[in-house]
Amino acid sequence: MHVDNLPAPPGTERDQAGRPPVVTASGVTKAYGRTRALAGVDLQVRGGEVLGLVGHNGAGKSTLMRMLAGLESCDDGTVLVHGEEAPAGSAAAFRTVRMAYQETSLCPDLTVAENMWISSRHCLPRLGWRRAASASARRRLDEVFPGHGVTPRDRVEDLSLAQRQMVEIVRACLVDRLDLLILDEPTESLGPDAARTLYSYVRRLAEAGTAVLLISHRIREVLSAADRVVVLRDGAITADRPAAGLTESGVLTLMGAHVAVPSERAGTARRGTGGGTGARVVAELRDARGGGLHGVSLRVRAGEVVGLAGLAGQGQQEVLERLWRPTRRDTEVSVARAYVPGDRQRSGVLPLWNVGDNLVVTAMREIARRGLRRIPDERDVVRHWVERLAVKGGADAGITELSGGNQQKVVVARAFASTAGLVLLDDPFRGVDVHTKTELYRLIREEAAKGRSIVWYSSENAEMAHCDRVHVFRAGRTVAELSGEEISEEQIIAVSFDEPDQPDESDKPHERDEPGESGAPDRAARGRTHG
Ligand SMILES: Nc1ncnc2c1ncn2[C@@H]1O[C@H](COP(=O)(O)OP(=O)(O)OP(=O)(O)O)[C@@H](O)[C@H]1O
Asked: pTM for this structure?
């Protein structure tokens, strides 16, 4: 019997807009050994709201999400779903709460349809499941990411990083009822168009009453997508505000990052000596063709930071690949190189090793004497980089115990800890917080000033402002070379959309090239330098 004047039980009270709570966390704590990941968090997420959760790398965001999705138990405190106490691991209690992970949770050697079946089999028929899973996957992919280029028969390991991320998000949405969707850094590997269509889908979900919890280091995106912003700092909530009225720098201040917004700093941060036209050429591509390239010429001088920009999949990664393995006659590289992959899950971290060994693996050979490792010297190198990039967790932690952003810092540090003269960056700052990114931009400029050369592909056009020169790519060609003050986000976007000349017959794309694919072969060897 419903009695109007009785107060609603805790965890079920509607707010002024009449929105019911979906999940309520009270006093949630969690520690991993001596690391306190959550220090008593109270948070309520309501149906129909988009809640943005921000905080520096290692602040505890993913840990909190795992509690709200029932994937891990808290040491102390409670989690209620629709007002009912929900024990971690209870599939029934968390049935309508779904999460799309930062590191995708897909099985790489299964197809897209098979992955959908694994996570959504409770709402798919047993007989004819493959056809049903394929149809649902296709329909939802079309709805959320038009032009995705994925078929349900594709094996996940053959998909690009962006496509895997799309499948991960759609996998989370494939349920008969969705009350809370948690998106952990969903756009870090998506292009701008896919990000836009995702956010319009998020808005539609919220209008239909679903709660969406969005974790992101892209503060501008959070402010435009979310109704409310919660700041997590060292495992505790330090601010909970409506998004309207907040500014990017205001949020950064709440996060405790005493830095300017990166795009504001770019103009002053970039362009040191830039190698100068007289500096030695350390790497060169001369009219490089094949494998997705259609006549690319590019020179890198000592001490230069050269950017590769343009829409994703236009040949930038093929250029990095050529410079990494200069096996063709059209490519010449005269110095040792180190590679920083953006896809740390596939080719970045060595999961069974600790932070220190992951960090020093590239430099190990240079530090060794007569084939023997010099552990004290390795430790000094590790200590230096762990401190410099503030890797939360320390040198002895297992690498997989680190938060995603901290793992990425280790992968970046690995390249710079070596003596490689040419560092190749393949969109490497995914999941890294704003404060650390600013440190990394400074690091790049400092290393260039010491004479190192850097070739940097980034899907964030604003980052290109830290380069001396930028080649903008389209359809395997350089369509513009910008330098100095010409480098701006607007200019890069403008030339990215310029109509390219018609390719001649000799330029026909490599037959294995797929749209949106890097075409890059195995990158597992990138823990080493080539020289
Ligand atoms: N399984 C684990 N074992 C040990 N420590 C862990 C584990 N998971 C998380 N931690 C630690 O808990 C802290 C919070 O990590 P969490 O992944 O929640 O951070 P985050 O805010 O999501 O960071 P990021 O923005 O880098 O993804 C970190 O110090 C991390 O090293």
From this structure: 0.76
